[in-house]
Amino acid sequence: MLLRTLSLALGLGLALGGTASAADRLGSYRIDPAQISVSGISSGAFMANQLHIAHSATFMGAGLVAGGLYGCAVMTADEKGVRPLASIATGACMSAPALLQPATTYAERIRRFAAQGWIDPVEGLGRSRLYAFTGKADRVVNPETVRRGVEVYGLLGLPTAALSFSDEAIDAGHAWVTQAYGVPCPDNRAPYINACEYDQARMVLQTLYGPLQDRATRLSGRFVAFDQTEFAPGGQAAPSGLWDTGHLYVPAACETEGATCRLHVVLHGCKQSAQELGDTFYRHVGVNEWADSNRILVLYPQARTVNVNDFPTPRLTDIFNINPEGCWNWWGYAYDTRYLFKDGVQVKAIWQMVQRLAGRSD
């Protein structure tokens, strides 16, 4: 589901077919600035982790499902930034946990990055809340990667009381887990949404926001398709790994005059974007039903595949910078060696979407 192997990445140069539909400009709502959070599955978990750590003064919590160890694919880091490798992503981060660095190494890097001003001060992480999940049958991302990520949060001040960690307690494959929608629970296959009689959406939102009203049995709100290209450098979404169109779920209560709502960002994994699955992910992972009855807007940014033809100026190294499975950028593809930081292309794009929704300037 994530980038399977480095050789697979080098061997795939064609993007999946299809184009995004026309979409409107993303609007603004009355958002409680203290109630903005993020979650994700697989590559989306790594990106959720990157967003949370880069902007911990704003994101009050994160949900990490089957992924999420900050800087896991980094080979070296210095005062100029990082040098990541896809081979570390597919090796240590996914299948060879013995090659992972100690949690103290990742935590110290985060402190150094904060000292450089590339991410928010780490003190914000100590005031956060965290949901983490790894399935017992996950054969894509080794559970130790998720455990190591949780350990890093602890070293940076996250209290145990603010953590909900399902550590191989459920026989789930590599997937976002639902009560009844998707393939059988232990499977490691598309669409990577598994029916496990476990309401992961509820657990994520309850961990981050506390007690919830009962989920809606029928959605009251609407889905909004919005233009993501304006958030991409130069308006060119494809070379950045961004799909042209993102999606937003707006509960009816959030469109009532004077109503204040919360905002939760949900990030799909590889092979789960609208480019690949249409509306399957953003309609069927169960988040909207809980959001609807609890005044939570849900932002679903969309990644896309990147192939050599998407780069405007051909270079011999383009083949090393592609993204054949539509993953979020957690190993520095598309020449983005700043992908971990506030000025990383995708981190910045999603951050600007959040700022727009909250009615703030960048």
UniProtKB/TrEMBL annotation:
Q: Which Gene3D superfamilies match?
A: alpha/beta hydrolase
**Record's keyword terms, sorted:** Signal
Quick check: keyword Ribonucleoprotein in the entry? Answer: no
Does Nucleotide-binding appear among the keywords? no
Signal peptide (residue range): 1-22
Q: Which InterPro entries match?
A: AB_hydrolase_fold
Q: What is this protein called?
A: Depolymerase
